Structure formats: structure tokens, C-alpha cells
From TrEMBL:
GO terms for molecular function: guanine phosphoribosyltransferase activity; hypoxanthine phosphoribosyltransferase activity; magnesium ion binding; nucleotide binding. Its EC number is 2.4.2.8. This is Hypoxanthine phosphoribosyltransferase. Keywords: Cytoplasm, Glycosyltransferase, Magnesium, Metal-binding, Nucleotide-binding, Purine salvage, Transferase. It is an enzyme of class 2 (transferase).
Amino acid sequence: MLDKDIERVLVSPEEIHAAVVRLGAQLTQDYRGKEVVVVGILRGAAVFMADIVREMDIYLDIDFMDVSSYGEETESSGEVKIIKDLDTRLEGRHVLVVEDIIDTGRTLNYLVELFKYRKAASVKVCTLLDKPERRIVKNLIPDYVGLEVPNEFVVGYGLDFKQKYRNLPYIGVLKPEVYQ
Ligand code: PRP
Ligand code: MN
Ligand code: MG
């Protein structure tokens, strides 16, 4: 039923799974023996978060943060409002931030700086999708990337358009008539 709004599938469930397995194996290797807190950024990262932590065969803590960027039209944006903060103290802990997509990089830039300020032992970023063409914060380079995507409006597997389509099992491009 949701399929009727999708122009084409960009990343199939099988391709998503392969990326998650590959990243999970790498993260398992890199974080073995470390005190890691995996931080999922609501709401987009919820689906990826659930899958990626199950591919990490190590002891880890899970926490979530809900943030919203505002002032999109102002040049000085990059200010991010915290809707729900972490419940976990980060001092001395290794932090792995999990995101669904990096676009301008403003959300993650803010969070990485915040977690460093909170004296995390290290802060790394794992994103399923990266859209480098749209990057404004040029020095924000994710440590772990599932797939690069072109500059198109993508939905599914956590990503929304007006809060819908997050439950699609694939990542797709919306038909223009849906958002016009
Ligand atoms: C989306 C996405 C990332 C962020 C990326 O979240 O999930 O968190 O935007 O954009 P940026 O790199 O330009 O900062 P959104 O603010 O739409 O909230 P949501 O996760 O609840 O959909
Ligand atoms: Mn988000
Ligand atoms: Mg969104």
C-alpha cells in the first residue's frame, strides 16, 4: 500500500542487511574490550539502531537522544534543540553515535561537540546513509558509513516524509506528486 507512493527503490532490504552486517562486524572488532555507549538519534535512527546493535557481539549500553534542528532558513543554523537528553553519564566512556542519514552535518556536528564537552573517551559516528553532496559542515566525516546516496529525497527504514514512511523495509525515492 505504501509502495504506491514510491518512484523507485534505492536500497533494497537485502542491500541494507548486507551493509548492517558489514558495519556490525567492523564495530565488533573496533570496540572489543571497550566501555561503549551506543547513542541512537531519534526518531530516524530507531530502525537502524535496532538492527546494528544486534550485529555487535560485545557488551554495550544503549541510550537515545531526541534532537531537533531549528532555524533552517537562517544561515547561522547548527543550533540544535534537545528534546530528550541521554540518561547515561558519558565521562570516560566511548560513544558511538548511530544515525540514519547525514545531510548538512549540522545535527551530528552539534552532538559530537556536546559529547566531547561531556568528556567522552572517544566519539565516533556510524551512519547508514551519507549524502555528501549536501554537506555544509565540511569537517564532519563519519567514521562508519553504510552507503552513500545521491541528493534525492529518500524515505524508509527510519527515514520519514512528514513523519510517514519510516516503516518501509527498504529505502526509496518518493514520487514528486507526494511532496509537491
Ligand atoms: C534527519 C535525520 C538526521 C538529520 C540529518 O532528522 O534523521 O538526524 O535529519 O540532517 P543534517 O545532517 O542536515 O543535520 P530529522 O531532524 O528529520 O528528525 P527525525 O530523525 O525525527 O526524522
Ligand atoms: Mn534524525
Ligand atoms: Mg525527519
